[in-house]
């Protein structure tokens, strides 16, 4: 159960090779981009004339403001003010204006003086309502206040300097109440990629963009019991945090504007454009817990993390061209929150003598021995399956700690590199490109295979049982190119973005039981990949009609490809099936019958690699789609805006759909604005959901079982009468009010309602019967061929409705000699099943198979439906203080039930973050602090009320429900260098 030195050396060697491979691939991508840049730049790249601009930034009272972003307009060059509010910036001679921006103050644009320093005074602003947003409208230049739909702006480049979190998904989880994401445990591949959602909806019902272009999804299907079950999301953590300038979160359905998936909202990641500044950061930290019972090997810390990032931009010519590079390397150790195993580890047939030799050999009855022979042996040796754990631990010189599972965050190592480039071609057009590559290697464990369970225990190979591990190898690539500009009075944007994700599985410390002692212990289990190529052509124009009319239209083509990569034969095959596909390998173990007499228990040894059977067959499926859209926004008056969008989209595999959106905004006065939007939307079933199939080990009714996941195009699906998947359809409404009051306060409140029809869900397990009807017998035989005992499918089975309220209150003002900013945000949402479960005629009366109670709990309560946060930031000279309290609402875990079948509810909890930053010099800033300062844990599982969920100490805290994790207090230190 302990990672050996040999394995450590091997994994570090593999990591090194893959980092080199990653950097090599990234170099090729960068070369490709630079090749295009060179075509347009020619000799202009070397003809750079620059000038130096310097100055001081203060507030109205003359107090210096540190950390103000000073950027050269249309250049990308930028710098931050130091502790005295001073800055010095090299800009091209052609730059005429500078832009000054910082949270808490209104952005200001000033003309570059001919000579001398400049003095800037920023006006205080209680929020970022003046900031220009890109998402949610094809009309450029709108601020947060002017958009008819709610948009959050997360200034990531500033937040990252002080926040304890180091991944994008976790930063957003603690900043944006409508966003939810948490690391999973004992969830197979999901341990290595964090599912993320908006407004409590599905992880596949939020669209992610990068620089306004569609970002590809992962190739991973989340099929274990947890958030996003049966769904496919986007891996936000594939992008280095150092590459991101800000993140926009559109909290409204936008399928009519952006296409499939944008039902709950849209997340737009905007990359940095700065040049001439080197930014390097190094973060180290670990989880320190005060709960002594959770200590591993007498340590009170684990989960050590180290992350180093860099960012640097280079100006390419005197006309504003630039290329910005970013990267990061992360090493994250695993955590463990399982207590010492309290259950049965050894039974009487596992007994050893004083020299460690087994006294009984029950493996002799694992072939074709008759029950009578096995029964005679058990009776002769008085073997009843009695618990002898304590005595046997003493004989073997081990403790219960040696048989503890690892329940916590997975071990991860990754390396990522990204770039963002723009190069003007002439006065009207510019070439742009962005993208990058990331490699991640993960290691997580599954369930312990203990000697007390003979169907998953082979003493000749693992005398004390074993803890199998899943090792991941994830490669992610993105590359985009485009040309944009103005042609006459029209704005034109022509682009292409390609993205791919590959997820490979390697299993070790495992065994294929159907091979007995002939089995290997490490397996190449195969994997899956997904690639997507999207081409867009967009046109927009403003007309002088009333107070302004903006018209936009365009077209999109998208190609998608999903592959399953078969593993080696031993990873998936059951070698114990005869020519008729019937099992020939049995295991006979002693038990006591109802009369207390010794009896024989017969089980089938499972095939394939334990913990994660490999993929059996290669799959290579693709589809095409094309779309046309139109968008119009009219400022009827300076106060009243109306708009609408319509989009037609056609898919090669399921047909076409047309969706629309209508918006309106009215400025009640200079401070307050009312807004509303209605939309229809859709989500095309992912290729993964249509064609994914594998066999996996899952906990079914408290027992480890091999579960076959079958596509709807499979023979088994046809026998069961399951229809093909179709697109989800949605209708949504958002309405609210936003504005400022008392000079220093801002407030926004938005109500939302989303109804989804024909939602795709993951079914419960169904099994065949070798003695049943011909159909049941056929199902049974097909499952045997797939090395499975039960089957699951993807089906359009339910309708849902989600409604709730988002609210944000902000305050900013001077406090003493410093500046204070306070943000209070909250989301209250609820998702409910709407109507009856939809089943085909072959399943009438068995609706629970399609959508059981556990699935309903996952839909409605596995993630917090309420979340509130309070953030206080105080800047004083060289100091910056950050305090945040986040209240995570209650969740329910369908894996934890009492004897009456009632699932356990986990109480709301408040998690406190605190950090203190000090600018040692203009270039060096040191930050220390903590996430979960008070060492708060979720509600403990009551082992008496929920013995199955507690699982003899394995799960003192829930591992599936997504609240805020169960790792405890995280202490960190970060060094930021800006040169």
UniProtKB/TrEMBL annotation:
Positions of the TonB-dependent receptor plug domain: 144-266
Task: List the membrane topology term(s).
Answer: Multi-pass membrane protein
List each copy of the TonB-dependent receptor-like beta-barrel domain by range: 429-933
List the SUPFAM superfamilies.
Carboxypeptidase regulatory domain-like (SSF49464), Porins (SSF56935)
Compartments in which it is found: Cell outer membrane
Q: Which Pfam families match?
A: CarbopepD_reg_2, Plug, TonB_dep_Rec_b-barrel
Q: Which UniProt keywords apply?
A: Cell outer membrane, Membrane, Receptor, TonB box, Transmembrane, Transmembrane beta strand, Transport
UniProt cross-references to PANTHER family, sorted A to Z: PTHR47234, SECRETIN_TONB SHORT N-TERMINAL DOMAIN-CONTAINING PROTEIN
Family according to the record: Belongs to the TonB-dependent receptor family.
Question: What name has this protein been given in UniProt?
Answer: TonB-dependent receptor domain-containing protein
| Originating organism | Ohtaekwangia kribbensis
